[in-house]
Amino acid sequence: MDADTGKEVKMDYRFSHIKKVLVANRGEIAVRCIRACKKVGVKSVSTYTESDSTSLHASLADENILLPGENANGYLDADEILKTCKRLNVDAIIPGYGFLSEDAPFAQKVVDAGMVFVGPSPESMTEMGQKHRARDLAVAADVPVVPGTELLESETAALEAAKKLGFPIMLKATGGGGGMGLQVCHNEEEISAAFKKVKSRGETLFNNSGVFLEKYYPESRHIEVQIFGNGTDVVHFGERECSIQRRHQKVIEECPSSFVQRRPSMREKLAKCATAYALQLKYKSAGTIEFLVDDNTGDFFFLEMNTRLQVEHGITELCYGIDLVALMLQQADCEKGGRTGLSSEYLHSLQKDGPDGAAIEVRVHAEVPFRNYAPSPGLLQYVEWPAGDGIRVDTWVKTGQRIAPFYDPLIAKVMVRASDRDGASKKMTRVLSEAKLQGPPTNLHFLRDVVASNSFLEGDTLTNFLETKFKYEPCAIDVLSPGSFTTIQDFPARATSGHGIPKGGPMDNVSSRIANILVDNHPGTETLEITLSGPELLFTAPAVFSVTGSPVPVTVDGEAQPMWSRVIIQAGQKLKVGKVENGGCRCYLAVKGGFPEIPPYLGSKAGTPSLAFGGTQGRQLQMGDWIELDPSTKQWAQTSMPYTLPKSCVPNYDITEIYCMHGPHDSDDFMTTKDRLMLYNTAWKIGHNSNRTGIRLVGPVPEWSRKDGGEGGSHPSNVFDYGYPSPGGINWGGDSAAIFSMDSPDLGGLLCSSTIVSADLWRLGQVKPGGYLRLRPTTFEHARELAGRVETFIEGIHGLVDGKSEAVPSLNLDLPPSGLEHGTSNAIIKRIPGEGERFQVVYRQAGDSFFLVEIGKQTCDVRVTSRIRLLVQKLEALKLNLVMNPNIGSVMIQFDANAISQNKLLKTVMDLEASIEYSTDIKIPCREIYLPVVFDHPDIRASEQRYMETNRPTAAYLPDNVEYLRTNNGYSTRQEVFQTLLKSPYLIVAVGFFVGTPILFPLEPMSGIVGQKYNPTRVSTPGGTIGMGGSLFAIYPLEAPGGYMLFARTMECWDTFGNGPSFTPTRPWLFEPFDIVHYHEVSVAEYDKLMLSYKRGEYKFDIREGVFSLHDVYEIFEKSKTDPKVMAFREGQRQGVEQNLTLEKKLYGEWVAEQEAEKKRDAERVKEMMEAEPSITIDSPIDANVWKVLVEVGDVLKEGQIVAILEAMKMEINVLCTEEAGGTVVEAIASKPGTVVSPGAWIIVAKIDEK
């Protein structure tokens, strides 16, 4: 059984002359040609451009060559392709369709270079490339032609010819094809504009301005005959019908034509005309003769000949048991051997009297039929095609493929074959219903509806089918405007598995769940989370929706609608959600049935734009997005009744306080009594840059109870890396705090003083930048009581809406006093002192869902790290449904307090820890991973340079991070620094932060270098960078912000969709705690080649099974304590650190002073301007950061123009020129990019233009 035809194929041929073929194309046809080469035993070469580097064809061939040209231009660069062929000793070029497939000069160059062009001769292409010439040949061959003209010289000539033929007519560019260069005219008035357009497009697209005219048949069919020639003889393989078209381009094709099937003699007539026509050209290889068929009379007329393989060739293969691409390669092999072609006897043996069964093909495009087939490039988040007998899918995409905007939007050709047309139609409907293409909108459902329509099933498939026989009625939301920051969120989102994968989900899960309850969804169904200002959405089908959350105006076609209500919207109506009013900052839109085509990622549909996964293509909503609704939405809209919740059920969104628990780090060893009093008595201002990754707190600075962070870092807020209580932890970076929210990291080296209780995370999600918030400490017991109240309230709402209860629930959020003395902390719930060989163990609470186990004195000790590993293994064996985040000296345990209490879990962990033997004679199975490393990669140098240009120009670690590490650790040369990476294995002590970032510790004492972290941090770090901070290392899994020193580069280690051989869709991270990494050096060129292989999903990591021997490693470190060489290294390191700290303190102080001075100078200059003469200002509407200023001093302002873009909560806010400022001249930029502004702060100062 043949993989491409689905039938037994006997095409016995032995290749003798062609050994290697270059495929000069992309996408599905390139894949088809490569597979044909493999099948016949010929080596293949693929070509691809940068934007196609992850396409299937770019890695499928025996050799895959990156073209230097950009986008489509790369595939059209004939000279470069010919150079590649010469370099690789290519024997033949197969062009597929499109691009160079019908380029006669290119084909001639191929022949002149001693190769074979797999296709017709250049002479045949030249003849057929001019449509008027092709028409003349048809007349000579006694083939009927559409009544028409020769080339027309002028509009006047076109008008006279049209009058003579009678309207409607079609003007055609003689060099056109693929539906381009055509214009239908229904009357005399349309001739002039159409003639100009066709002439212009012919000149632009085909370098030929020739125009001719033909009679247009509106009630017609498009039927074509597949032929194949050997230079002396021509055979045929039946006909295909391609009548269903959009914009003169084929959408659905069939073999055989149902119209021809009903007329037994017609196939023979068509085939006779087609072969006679091709014989005139002494045609070689595959080609297609296209005919226009009058549906009323059955008369047919020659349209054109396509001198190439057709897109739809596959359905002929399915019905005639032929492999056309293999046959083309056989013909080319004969030509390469000096023969004219295959024997006529062989060709005639392949020709059959008629088709075996019936086949249908649909072209699946990334486009929106509802928007006149507008293209829709984007990220395919999930791809799945049905398989089975009689099903064939030719495609170039897989899950994770990005559809670029530079090419034809064809994603795949789906083909089915059955015994008859009715069976094929049913099979196609099923296949299209089961296929999954989730991400950018496609025409998949459109095609399904066409094939299932009565007109199609009856064979009423004329060329005007889509305009006259079919009405598409999609069930979807068309996003007209996305709002400021709108994402898809479900609850409870991802059951986190650590590894730097945030939980995600709604920031306010109370509002989101009630929205779902109102429309009779499961409470956790996905909703649209809307921040600050909402979207405008066109519903293409009736639906039931609700909007809950902070107060916001809601309208349908301009008519106000109530919040906290069940509302019915009709097809064609527009829903608009306005700007958030008063308290809160987020609202939620639920639609009955949810959004079924949003694919789950790692168990949830929740979008995490900061990490580019989940939701709508891993990003926030954008204009032009298309969100499919449940097919039952029409029925639900008919049967649902409006409903509004009692006002007493609506929560209060004027949020001024929130409950937290002490710990893990507000204890005396980190914070003073004064710090705690300050922390819990301050009204903290919510920073402008608060968002889904953290809520920023602006306020006083702790005095701290220690002078530095020890081995964790230089600042008192620095600690040894540990698992974060995320979401909820109040995290201190230096002297400023942020509260971890739903998309926050899960490990790091900054302490968390306190943790928001789980039942109040929804209120945290509603605090608005510029507002104020107090933190109220409570106990574990009270936190669980509050959680119970919230869940009881939700259940009460459910019962009330369902009609199962008449009780109106209310939500009481007031808790009794904690009973703790002010200024004290109960963060430490148990401390086991160290004694003898036993390590100290400290148990710290971290909210009501986490607690932290710290072992030892929080210094690098492999005995502690090994002990934590053993503890984790023992806990895993108990299957308590815990999520554990181990690190170098601790493990953070996340637990479900409804399943196990804090006290019970504490006792369990204490017992297990005490049961672990104190011994160094421990061997732990591990994986050993061997990674390439490159030093001084240009991308690292570019990253350092960008930082100096856009962040901070001077620092102890600038301009060269490696040079800083050299001086900081007392080395004489850069090579000595690099050798530290190559001479030591590295133990992965933790995996997390974001997207599987590994934290590594060197197992060789002489590789134990140290370094500070960037201050401020970088906005971008090249993927695969090996970073160094404190005494630990990290590998950046992909391009991301960061603060570690840029040391070297290795392979990226996060594969979002799990396509690579070392990943899976459910395990997109590479590393696990206790893996051991070994590095070996490669050159920049070698590294870039490896990374290209990784990006294409081909790179396989070198992973071997190993054993970690604690005894051996511990002995190395113990001996190093008295090793003179190590001691000298440590002394040099101590001196280097001291010198660099002094230098950094000086440079940082100078930089901060200059920043403040510049701000002061700007403020004084603006003040002087305002005092000197009356001026007009354009002010900031909110607390934000000025991202861009789009005007300059001297510009004349226009009302409504965007003068600046602010950034707040990871949203862009446009600042517009007011009516008052229109016509004025910009006098000063009061707030430059990077300035933090409050509502009313001046951004632009302008004055009236006196001219």
Automatic annotation (TrEMBL):
UniProt domain Lipoyl-binding: residue ranges: 1171-1247
Signal peptide: none
Residue ranges constituting the Biotin carboxylation domain according to the UniProt record: 17-471
KW Hydrolase (keyword) present: yes
Cofactor(s) listed: biotin
InterPro entries for the chain: ATP-grasp (IPR011761), BC-like_N (IPR005481), Biotin_carboxylase_complex (IPR050856), Biotin_carboxylation_dom (IPR011764), Biotin_COase_C (IPR005482), Biotin_lipoyl (IPR000089), CPAse_ATP-bd (IPR005479), CT_A_B (IPR003778)
Residue ranges of every copy of the ATP-grasp domain listed in the record: 135-333
UniProt KW Plastid keyword: no
Key words of the record: ATP-binding, Biotin, Hydrolase, Ligase, Nucleotide-binding
MF (Gene Ontology): ATP binding; hydrolase activity; ligase activity; metal ion binding
PANTHER family, sorted: CARBOXYLASE:PYRUVATE/ACETYL-COA/PROPIONYL-COA CARBOXYLASE, UREA AMIDOLYASE
The protein's name: Urea carboxylase
Organism: Hyaloscypha bicolor E
